[in-house]
């Protein structure tokens, strides 16, 4: 096993040609729209998030994850401006929200969403535009997976999104797109929850995506360290396994979990408000987890099911 940088995708790169690396998230830390109401009273941007993003850039992150529902585009735009980094050296992902109970749709369609997003970012394009979830598609909705995906393709062809993909899609949703669109227009990414305690968000999804050249991005990769809810104090059973591996590899549990994803050719998106942790999350390229330890994480992880997002959504698929 080589211990240098793992390139998870040869094809997906920044405009300047850098291969995709671990992303920094701007979602879960910022509590969606609640933050907007509480923090954005006077100022149009949250200085706290701008400063966190500047730390991420300083440390070496160049891949940033956001979404309509996170309302963090103005902060990303501001941080990019202040950083002085060439836009073409960054990789910025955002997502269209088709609407679910907890997060109703706020744009009519992907086009309206992306126009708003680009204005808030003060940019001409995003690198990757995702359909946030497939669950808006129902008899009552005026949007279908197909109508949304057609528009995603148009946005790609117009250059407003360099790549297009999906998030939280199960095999059945991807198969619908495969049936209705050309191969050159298939999604290139499926961003899902992934860690040793949730190795398949929905049945067979990782294998299916990897077989079809769809890159899996892992959100909540550190969930086994954190408990089942953000304010949970409970200790996860996998923590003792991670402590053992931490000692063996002289790395933190978080670094083990991030490296675990990379060794499966899965790209993690992680979030931290603390500089030390932000630095540590990119310091995962100078060691490799042995095959038997990878297997131990697989086996031990699968004994303790843990799903932080979209719980129950895949039961009947
Ligand atoms: P993580 O698994 O990285 O969890 C982040 C949490 O872990 C933070 O609370 C952070 O707290 C804590 N943390 C970070 N480093 C460590 C460490 N070394 N030890 C212990 N705790 C640590 O990822 P997220 O759940 O935040 O997901 C990542 C991103 O993915 C989101 O921000 C969002 O952009 C995206 N996402 C996408 C979803 C989708 O539906 N597509 C759903 C959910 C997330 P602290 O600040 O104290 O370090």
Automatic annotation (TrEMBL):
Chemical reaction(s) catalysed: isatin + NADPH + H(+) = 3-hydroxyindolin-2-one + NADP(+); (R)-pantolactone + NADP(+) = 2-dehydropantolactone + NADPH + H(+)
Domain of life of the organism in this record? Eukaryota
What SUPFAM superfamilies does the entry give? NAD(P)-linked oxidoreductase
**Top-tier EC class:** oxidoreductase
Keyword Iron-sulfur: yes or no?
no
Q: Name one Pfam family in it.
A: Aldo_ket_red
Q: List UniProt keywords, sorted A-Z.
A: NADP, Oxidoreductase
- Output one GO BP term: ketone metabolic process
Indicate the segments forming the NADP-dependent oxidoreductase domain, all copies. Answer: 39-298
Q: Which GO terms describe its molecular function?
A: 2-dehydropantolactone reductase (A-specific) activity
- In the Enzyme Commission scheme, what number(s) does this protein have? 1.1.1.358
Q: Does the keyword NADP feature in the UniProt annotation?
A: yes
- PANTHER family cross-referenced by the UniProt entry: 2,5-DIKETO-D-GLUCONIC ACID REDUCTASE (PTHR43827), NADP-DEPENDENT OXIDOREDUCTASE DOMAIN-CONTAINING PROTEIN (PTHR43827:SF3)
Which family does the entry's similarity section mention?
Belongs to the aldo/keto reductase family.
Name the chain's protein. 2-dehydropantolactone reductase
Gene encoding the protein:
Piso0_004727
């Amino acid at each position: 096993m080589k211990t240098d940088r793992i390139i998870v995708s040869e094809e997906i790169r920044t405009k300047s040609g850098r291969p995709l690396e671990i992303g920094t998230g701007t979602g879960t830390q910022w509590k969606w729209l609640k933050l907007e109401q509480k923090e954005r009273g006077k100022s149009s941007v949250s200085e706290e998030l701008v400063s966190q993003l500047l730390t991420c850039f300083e440390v070496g992150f160049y891949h940033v994850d956001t979404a309509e529902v996170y309302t963090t585009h103005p902060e990303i735009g501001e941080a990019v401006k202040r950083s002085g980094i060439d836009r073409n050296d960054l990789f910025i992902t955002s997502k269209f929200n088709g609407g679910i109970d907890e997060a109703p749709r706020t744009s009519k369609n992907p086009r309206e969403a992306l126009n708003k997003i680009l204005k808030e970012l003060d940019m001409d394009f995003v690198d990757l535009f995702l359909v946030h979830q497939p669950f808006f598609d129902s008899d009552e909705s005026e949007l279908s997976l197909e109508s949304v995906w057609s528009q995603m393709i148009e946005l790609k062809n117009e250059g407003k999104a360099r790549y297009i993909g999906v998030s939280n899609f199960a095999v059945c949703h991807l198969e619908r797109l495969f049936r209705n669109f050309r191969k050159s227009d298939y999604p290139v990414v499926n961003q899902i929850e992934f860690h040793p305690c949730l190795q398949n968000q929905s049945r067979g999804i990782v294998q299916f995506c990897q077989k079809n050249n769809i890159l899996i991005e892992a959100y909540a990769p550190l969930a086994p360290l954190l408990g089942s809810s953000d304010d949970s104090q409970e200790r996860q059973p996998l923590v003792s396994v991670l402590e053992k591996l931490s000692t063996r590899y002289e790395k933190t549990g978080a670094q083990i979990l991030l490296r675990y994803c990379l060794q499966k050719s899965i790209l993690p998106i992680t979030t931290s408000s603390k500089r030390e942790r932000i630095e540590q999350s990119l310091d995962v390229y100078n060691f490799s987890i042995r095959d038997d330890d990878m297997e131990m994480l697989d086996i031990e992880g699968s004994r303790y099911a843990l799903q932080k997002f979209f719980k129950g959504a895949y039961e009947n698929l």
